[in-house]
């Protein structure tokens, strides 16, 4: 019997058991990444820890190759159905790297309207990709987050229903909907707005074992 390798991975310590995810290599699939001091490229969590294990890198590369295939959207939609997935996160690592890939994501979301999907992306900085992102955001089962930081500044355009996740290196803007603190920022907890900080990163959330599966804030419109 032939074993078919799945596109989706299930769960991790942050997501919890009910969230599936599809991941790509960091940096080289992130055309909207911010560079230099205060940018996401320098502090990217997907370049450290378990992400540097050879088996993780190999899988990310394989997923990247799969995402380029014409059959990708059909294969992903089929796998979501077969596995009974209810919630999916696009890209624990990596991002929307082209308009063509963005349209494949849209095709998957449209094919599986009962699957709640969500994504954080800096590809809003690439005009050709952003056009498709706004179409994704309009889908009832898709929650889109624009990732931003001190380098990108607050996005000049945020469509209705789209939220902004801020990578905190300094003080986050009042308009931000959610904050993810860098390791350096966590050393100065007095500066972090706990009302905006992702609950998986707070001391109280960690003590309670909070996961994305339990919180559901990011994938609930």
What's the topology here?
Elements: E1 9-10, E2 19-22, H1 40-43, H2 54-67, H3 72-82, E3 87-90, H4 99-111, E4 116-121, H5 127-137, E5 142-148, E6 163-168, E7 178-181, H6 183-186, H7 203-208, H8 212-215
Parallel strand pairs: 2-3, 3-4, 4-5, 5-6, 6-7
Antiparallel strand pairs: 1-2
Offer a concise description of the structure.
With 221 residues, this protein is an alpha/beta fold.
How many strands in all? Answer: 7
Distance between the termini: 42 Å
Low-confidence runs:
none
List SSEs in N-to-C order.
EEHHHEHEHEEEHHH
Helical proportion, percent range: 25-40%
Instruction: Write down the oligomeric state.
Output: single chain
Rg of Cα set:
17 Å
Shape: globular
| Individual helix count | 8
Largest sheet: 7 strands, mixed
Based on helices, strands and strand pairing, what is the structural class?
Answer: alpha/beta
Relative strand content: 5-15%
Strand order of the largest sheet: 1-2-3-4-5-6-7
Could you report the average pLDDT, rounded to the nearest whole number? 92
Task: Describe this entry's structure for a reader.
With 221 residues, the chain is α/β, with parallel strands linked by helices. It contains 8 helices and 7 strands. Strands 1-2-3-4-5-6-7 form a 7-stranded mixed β-sheet.
């Amino acid at each position: 019997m032939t074993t078919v390798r799945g596109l989706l991975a299930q769960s991790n310590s942050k997501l919890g058991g009910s969230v599936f995810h599809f991941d790509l290599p960091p940096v080289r699939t992130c055309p909207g990444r911010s560079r230099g001091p205060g940018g996401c490229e320098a502090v990217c969590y997907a370049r450290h820890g378990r992400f540097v294990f050879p088996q993780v890198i190999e899988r990310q590369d394989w997923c990247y190759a799969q995402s380029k295939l014409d059959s990708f959207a059909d294969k992903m939609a089929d796998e979501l159905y077969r596995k009974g997935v209810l919630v999916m996160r696009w890209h624990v690592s990596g991002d929307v790297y082209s308009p063509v890939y963005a349209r494949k994501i849209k095709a998957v979301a449209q094919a599986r309207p009962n699957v709640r999907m969500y994504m954080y992306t800096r590809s809003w900085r690439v005009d050709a990709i952003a056009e498709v992102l706004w179409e994704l955001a309009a889908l009832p089962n898709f929650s889109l987050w624009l990732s931003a930081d001190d380098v990108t500044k607050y996005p000049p355009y945020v469509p209705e229903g789209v939220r902004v996740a801020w990578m905190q290196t300094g003080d986050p803007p009042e308009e931000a909907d959610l904050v993810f603190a860098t390791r350096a920022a966590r050393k100065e907890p007095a500066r972090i707005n706990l009302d905006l900080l992702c609950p998986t990163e707070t001391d109280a959330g960690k003590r309670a074992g909070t996961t994305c599966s339990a919180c559901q804030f990011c994938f609930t419109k």
